[in-house]
Amino acid sequence: MSLIGTVDTLPLTDLFEVLAVAGKTGALHVRSAAGLGIVYFTGGEVCAGESGLRSGPVEDRAALVSRLFDVCFELFRCDEASFEFEVDLRPNWPAADTVGVPEILAETSRRLAEWAEIRLTVPSLEARPRLIPEGPEDGVILDAAQWRVVAAIDGRRRISALIRVLDSSDFEVCGRLASLVEAGLVALDAPDPAGNRAEIEDVAEPPAERRWAPARPSRLAAVLDEDPWSSGDEGPDELDMWDDQVLATTGTALRQAARETIREAVPELASEDESHDDEQVLEPVAEASPVDENGVLTAP
Question: Distance between alpha carbon 222 and the CA centroid of its chain, in Å?
Answer without folding.
Answer: 19
